[in-house]
Amino acid sequence: KWLKVEKERFSELVLRLFHTELEAVYEEFNRAQDNDGRLVNYAMMEALFPKHPNGQQTTIGTSEHLKSPSMVAIHKYFDTYYVPNNMAVVLVGDLDFEKTIKMVDQYFGTFKYKELPMKKMVSEEPMTNVVARTVKSPSTQRMVMAWRTDSYGTQDARLADVVAEILSNNGDAGLIDLNINQKQKTLGAGAYESAFKTYGAFVLSVVPKDGQSFDDAKKLLLDQIELVKKGQFPDWMLDAIVNDMKVQRMKGWETADGLATTLYSTYINNRTWEQELDEINQYEGISKADVVKFANDFFKDNYVVVYKEKGVNDKLVRVQNPGITPIKLNREAQSPFLKEIINAKSGDIKPQFI
After folding, report:
1. CA nearest neighbour of 324 among 21, 72, 33
2. Which helix (H) or strand (E) holds 108?
């Protein structure tokens, strides 16, 4: 049933509920305007990637995009990119693989191959100075600092990830955890690394205390980076980080959702499953000397800093609902396709006792 429904769903785009869905998107966009996390992140990504879609194109788009949506353009996008050579079907579970792949081919094998448009690779110029941005909202002040990293699956991305774990790991044993958070030198601070298909970001974040300056909070963060540069972190930490990665991966893959997410992420990143399985082995090969060298080479005055001050957001944009009227649907009517799906018999689930 699922394959048949999904095959029908992706065969043709039907925009019957386009206007009511647009109203929901308006609401989501307007709610996002009051979200400090998005406000800071958008400013950070835009400055970190002044050319690349990572920073120039958000998922929901801009207010101008939403004011004049084109159903023609949406159909064109669907017809161009929703094609079998740009698609993956990810199935996880207790499956008869031979039978399953035949069923996938039965339903999705009818989709026609189409050449995809050639995409020009967008390259960013190396950052050579500090780029500062200021945004405002009525809530508590905060600050983020971000360095542009290499893409997912590269050694530099792994090293940046390891440094982030040395600094901040679940609030327990990282340098930021021990030297800033547990000593209550700020309201909260942390570090993380996000590796994308192209490029990535290493981020430090901090919420200063009331009356604490951004410069003071920034110095606290940079002091922890200096400790990494000098190798002043426990030798056991690297083994602990990798072991925790193994545990988290195993826990994640014990769930269908966790394993499916890794599978489709591997596909999106243009990597083989063998490369993904080998990723932990690559982490295991990282030494303390590798981390210290990376930190000294990587952390320069070539980052983005976003100051989120307390005040009025004078750049806030709301999308006005143009007066969308509801669509009256006959919820009692059943199409021949729906009747076929409802009447189709499914095999009983047989429990297996271990």
Report:
1. 21
2. helix 97-108
